[in-house]
Amino acid sequence: MTTSSTPATQSTPAVTKTDEQWRAELSPQEYAVLRQAATERPFTGEYTDSHAEGVYACRACGAELFRSTEKFDSHCGWPSFFSPLAGEAIIEKVDSSMGMRRVEVLCANCHSHLGHVFEGEGYGTPTDLRYCINSISMTFSSPTA
User: Fold this and answer.
1) How far apart are CA 12 and CA 111, in angstroms?
2) DSSP string, 90-119
3) Of 22, 48, 57, 131, which sees the most CB atoms within 10 A?
4) Which domains are present in the chain?
5) How many helices (H) and strands (E) does the chain have?
6) Which residues are known to be catalytic?
7) What is the average pLDDT across 74-89?
8) How far apart are CA 136 and CA 14, in angstroms?
9) Residue 5 predicted with pLDDT over 70
10) Is the model's pTM score more than 0.85?
11) Do residues 58 and 109 touch, judged by C-beta distance below 8 A?
12) 114 exposed, middle or buried (CB, 10 Å; 0-12, 13-18, 19+)?
């Protein structure tokens, strides 16, 4: 698994806001996930079972993160992608909380928490990666006709 050469703890996000500004712009649930690294309950997110064509963007700043063509059904309870839109769209950061080693996925533009990425689970995707992303951390837009 690749981890960003610019860890979130050392780089400055392009979008910076005060805690008060984030709280004013996000709902309490969005704030908990995006700014405090909470996790929404499995199988409750609006994009978990979505198969529409389009682009998923960061709910906090609007940066494009994932395409629907890289989304797959992992049946894990959260939207799953095998690759981000572009490598520079996200930051991967080692997360040792919860008594295990995981890799946290952050928006590179605003450093909001999106979810985690896992590898080697045998899903048969081109990358053998599962970006497990909270629905509440994203917005979705379909291509215009």
Assistant:
1) 9
2) EEEEEE-GGGS-EEEEEETTT--EEEEEEE
3) 131
4) 19-141 (2.170.150.20)
5) 2, 9
6) 132
7) 91
8) 21
9) no
10) yes
11) yes
12) buried
Closest CA to 65 of 8, 134, 5: 134
Non-local CB neighbours of 44 within 8 Å, separated by 6+ positions: 135
CA dihedral sign of residues 104, 108, 112, 114: negative
Give the lowest-confidence range in 71-75, 95-99, 113-117, 131-135. Answer: 95-99
Query: Residue 69 corresponds to which amino acid?
Result: T
The 10s digit of each residue's pLDDT in 44-72 is 999 999 999 999 999 999 999 999 999 99
Tokens 């040792």 belong to residue: 96
Please give the backbone phi and psi of residue 106, each rounded to the nearest 5 degrees, phi first.
-120, 150
